[in-house]
Design brief:
Layout: H1 3-6, E1 13-17, H2 22-33, E2 37-41, H3 45-55, E3 61-63, H4 71-82, E4 90-93, H5 108-137, E5 143-148, H6 162-182, E6 187-194, H7 203-207, H8 209-213, H9 224-235, E7 246-249, H10 253-256
Parallel strand pairs: 1-2, 1-4, 2-3, 4-5, 5-6, 6-7
Length: about 260
């Protein structure tokens, strides 16, 4: 048992959507530091390019801007990635959106935007990349798909974010269904349900960390190392037997609501 190699990503290829900032960047940096060749995608090309330049100082990181909320964007990203690699070892479906509005005023646009990006896109991007995941899985290591859900898909929060909560709960269940289908092909699907991490989506944790920490049993918001560590575990040999499960990374928040 080589416990150092157990968590290594050396020689692996990884694609992280929503990788220019927040949780996606935390995961991308962790993968780069563990030796993976990392590709990040985001809708805003300038931000994606800037993050890739910064992470390239640590290792291999390439920017592939794309809007995966639409099917043309999914195809564009797959084609862009295929121009660099002929197989994919790790896919992280992290790109997401949120929308909050009172029940009586919640708009269809707020439903469709969030559900399409948070639940539809992970399925169809994974589907499109499955041939490349299969090619990677034909080698010595399993291929991995990690869906980024949320504790809002595990327990109910106080805010009226109807489509967000529903989409993340749906993604957790979708992870189980996809895992059962793909495990026989040596493609392992799992998920992470983050709690409060500083990000553009979670401005409260970003801008009011002390206040947010007061609602966390552990007494602090998540650090980049917390997210990177969870993703590295699932992506590496150490997480090979975690199939269809969702790892809750939240300092205890989901159970304290």
């Amino acid at each position: 048992m080589d416990t150092q190699q157990m968590f290594s990503l050396k020689g692996r290829t990884a694609l992280v959507t929503g990788g220019s900032r927040g949780i996606g960047r935390m995961i991308a940096e962790g993968f780069v530091r563990q030796g993976a060749r990392v590709y990040i995608s985001a809708r805003k090309a300038e931000a994606c390019d800037q993050t890739a330049r910064e992470l390239s100082e640590l290792g291999h990181c390439v920017s592939l801007p794309a809007d995966v909320s639409i099917m043309d964007g999914v195809k564009s990203l797959v084609d862009a990635y295929a121009a660099h690699e002929d197989q994919l070892g790790i896919l992280v479906n992290n790109a997401g959106a949120a929308w909050g509005a009172p029940y009586d005023e919640f708009p269809e646009s707020g439903w469709d935007k969030v559900v399409d990006l948070n639940m539809k896109s992970p399925f169809f991007l994974t589907q499109a990349l499955t041939p490349m995941l299969r090619k990677s899985a034909a080698g010595a290591q399993l291929a991995k798909v990690i869906n980024i859900a949320s504790i809002d898909g595990v327990s109910v929060n106080p805010w009226e974010t109807y489509s967000y909560a529903a989409s993340k709960a749906g993604l957790i269940h979708l992870t189980k269904r996809m895992a059962l289908r793909l495990a026989p092909e040596r493609i392992v699907v799992s998920a992470i349900a983050p709690g409060p991490f500083a990000s553009e989506m979670n401005k409260n944790a970003r801008d009011h960390a002390d206040e947010a920490a007061g609602r966390v049993p552990l007494g602090r918001i998540g650090d980049p190392e917390d997210m990177a560590g969870a993703a590295i575990f699932l992506a590496s040999r150490a997480g090979d037997y975690v199939v269809g499960s969702t790892l809750v990374v939240d300092g205890g928040c989901a159970w304290a609501r």
